[in-house]
Design a protein that fits this description.
The protein is mainly α. It contains 31 helices and five strands.
Length: about 700
Amino acid sequence: MHIYLMLAMLLLPLAGFVIQIFFGRKLPRQGDWLPTTMIGISMLIGIGLFAHTMVLGDPSLLLHSGFENSHGESFSWNWLLGSATEFSRATLDTEGIAGNWVFTILFDNLTAVMLSVVGIVSFLVHVYSLGYMKGEVRYPRFFAYLGIFSFSMLGLVLSGNLLFLFLFWELVGFSSYLLIGFYFERDSAANACKKAFLVNKVGDTGLFIGMMILWQQTGSFDILVIFERISQAVAENGGVVPTWVYAAGLLLFAGPISKSAQFPLHVWLPDAMEGPTPVSALIHAATMVAAGVYLIARMFPMYLFIPEVLLVIAIFGAFTAIFAATIGLTQWDIKKVLAYSTVSQLGFMTAALGCGALAAGSMHLMTHAWFKAGLFLCSGSVIHGMHHIQDMREMGGLRKKMPVTYITMLLCTMAIAGVPFFSGFYSKDAIIAATLHPSPAYAQLGYEAHGFLWSLPSILIPAAAFMTAFYMFRLIILTFHGEPRSEHAEHAHESPKSMLFALSLLAALGVFGASPWIFNGDFLGAHIWFNGLIGNPVLSEAGGVVVPAEVAHHPHGLAPILISLLVAGGGILLAFMVYQWKKLDPAKIAGAFGPAYQACYDKYYVDEFISAAIVRPLVFSWNVWCAAFDKYVIDGIVNGVGQVTKLGSVISGFFDRGIIDGLVNALAFVTQVLGAIARIFQTGYLQHYLSMLVGGVTIAYVLFYFAF
């Protein structure tokens, strides 16, 4: 039964897209209700599957790899024949290459979590867009794009086959290109969508090569088969992990570096703000940017065999978290602050997974979806009420003008800042705990040999959490507190009910969406329920992957909680001292840091460096190559054709003059000669004609006589 529910959840948004793109303008309300209804039904299916998983959940479902006692459901869908069967690894093995073209649905606890997150956020973005996008020229097309985007992400989550996962991965990138460039008449939007598309292709290239390595070595694209054959290869190699596993792991990580905006391929994400605000919420919360983190989580059993690569992932994530947080401190555009906040939070998730904390990273992916989607939609409400002003220096005093938006954004901000008992507190606490305590997976590395590298996440992540609390409450104070600082702020207005409904629901999820006291009655969250749902797997002595109960339900201890409280409280207190109570002058603070502040404000000149070191040389080389190609190939072809044509004209001229004209002239000469001969007999005298007549008759008579 689940297979048909999951297929329905996947195909409903696609059906909405097809109908909307062709017939949207002819439908009532320009068809906005159709994709919204379709994704709404998909959302309900996702929630139902998640609820079912909560009742029957088992952390071993995540691994679901056949290593040790895996349970769960996996189905293959032959899209050529249109039939579904329960997954059989033996069947795929005997099918060989043909088995790689079967769309496999892999359903486990991680899938259930992601389906509910994608469904809820996508539906609320659709509902929000009913009010926010009203009156747009391409209104029906926007909802069609939302439909294909949602379909793409759901397909990515459901795929148990790397080949189909990659196809949906690329479709997510293409549909994001359409949404980011929705206002394509603006140069900034047109450039942003091209930048997002091209930067993501860099990481996608690495991902594709990594997939090909896995396929070449294991003979399969099926994720479960890949896990099993890696385990077999390690066992056959005497417990030594083959080099190709390391290469594949690093190359696969290139995909998340670009898709989940990790340094240095983060540059596309802030520019993606050029799309409509609902697009920002969809891309930055539960869909496109989450895809990279999800891929690491999905391939986590493979990464457990290569903890050195996990350490690389952890360092990348931790550095991205602090790097983007420092930029967020200095931005004035409300959406840019949230954009760099997204980059930073993705760094949190990546660092957690790199530290071996699968449950913490996956949990933060879910909680971040709730509060970040809420924050973006709240910012859209502010921009809508401010008549599309985005500079926070022109805001102020909006809590009186937009009370619902203020309350919902404040709740989401408290969640992302890590205020106790909000959803973000539990997931961020789990991540900090993961950075402080090495995962059992790192026992193979030797903690002493990599102590310095291991210590980086434990330093950078709490520092980034402190900055997050500071710049998010800086945003709240500058936007909503104090007095209006512009005419637009003076006349700001609250948003339509459809927008406020989405904000309120996301704010509620930001508060309660992961709270352990709701799910298991543990108010302090010492045994986080999400660990029991997902688990933190480790390698067994036999080389397989298991989720021991002591890992799945291991309390974090007091230190991570104290650090979480200190960084959140310190960041919030500092924000109020600087921007609310005016105890510290922000201009003097900025001046004290001088060039460092300017570097943060200018995003460390990464865009400029990439432009100068990579883009311009490539463009210059491309222009030189194109000029040479044009000169020596295109012009050569054109000139060659000209020479051939010229030679043809010479031959044609000779033929025309020597043959055609010769024949014509010869015919004229013969005619002239015959005319001259005939002219001899044309004297004009009657007696000459009579003489010729008599002579002719006589000759004819003689000939006739002798002939017969």
